[in-house]
Specification:
This protein is of the alpha/beta class. Helix content is 39%, strand content 22%.
């Protein structure tokens, strides 16, 4: 179990990948959570917590009257916080603690798990009346190069990214349709007041937006080679991801939230 997650979270590259994610996305995520009115006393669950940046934010918001539990397959990188209870656990085996929760948040996790619909249902069941479920994942929209000195570099970037998404990610179980369908699944599970926002941006080489691609694709370099990308192309891709003269679009991230009926 859990083996369906294709990246090695415990490795240095895996750590860089999710540290970049936190830098890229925490502002958007906390903006959504802020809008839901997270406050003192809430009981919160953060799934796939990784370095714990969102769990820490929740703990500061909910204070000593609230509780925050952070769950991940690999908890070795969760930054210690006295107000966050950490659980090393595989979500395929259910939740490691009982609800009800005022808030359950999970970013870039369910798209990797084949039992995502069943897991979503169990999360809805674990919500308190009026509690919120917030999910974020990425779509199949192909990120394009934004500016490069050479059109060949633009084409290379787009080919490597497309190969990574469709010929490495998908066969490894990444579902790139889930992000757009999340709201529909939430509605089917009985949630209401469902909303989504999309987020994507451009980034220069050497900044988290492109260092994210670099650390992620380096972990699956052997699979990219098998899928037809050459060693020279991988090296050039790696150079571009640190080149401040090159810029490209991020993936398209979709954040969706819905609320359990109040009574
Ligand atoms: C792409 S990372 C996202 C990390 C963090 N949520 C973020 O957005 O920055 C996916 C995280 O989910 C965790 N994960 C993957 N499969 C899991 C499972 N079956 N049970 C619990 N955690 C899992 C990984 O260890 C990793 O920390």
């Amino acid at each position: 179990m859990g083996a369906e997650y294709v990246f090695d979270t415990g490795s240095d590259l895996g750590r860089q990948q999710v540290d970049c994610l936190a830098e890229m996305l925490d502002g958007t995520t906390t903006g959504v959570l802020d809008g839901l009115g997270v406050r003192s006393g809430w009981r919160c669950l953060e799934l796939g917590a990784r370095n714990g940046s969102i769990a820490g934010w929740l703990a500061r918001r909910t204070g000593s009257a609230g509780t925050v539990a952070a769950v991940d397959l690999d908890t070795s990188h969760v930054v210690a916080d006295p107000n966050v209870e950490v659980h090393r656990h595989d979500l395929n085996d259910g939740l490691p603690l009982e609800g009800p929760f005022d808030l359950i948040h999970s970013r870039l996790v369910l798209m990797h798990l084949s039992r995502r619909e069943e897991i979503l249902d169990s999360l809805v069941d674990a919500l308190a009346p009026g509690g919120w479920l917030v999910l974020g994942d990425l779509t199949d929209r192909l990120p394009l190069a934004a500016s490069a000195r050479d059109v060949a570099d633009e084409e290379l970037f787009e080919r490597v990214i497309e190969t990574g998404m469709n010929r490495v990610g998908r066969p490894a179980g990444m579902n790139l349709e889930w992000a757009r369908d999340t709201g529909r699944h939430m509605a089917r599970s009985g949630l209401e007041d469902i909303h989504s926002v999309e987020y994507r941006f451009t980034a220069y080489g050497g900044t988290p937006g492109l260092l994210y691609y670099r650390s992620m694709l380096a972990q699956v370099g052997h699979l990219l080679l098998k899928a037809g990308i050459s060693e020279g192309e991988l090296r050039r891709f790696d150079e571009l991801m640190t080149d401040p003269r090159f810029s490209a679009w991020s993936y398209q991230f979709v954040f969706t939230w819905g609320r359990r009926q109040k009574t």
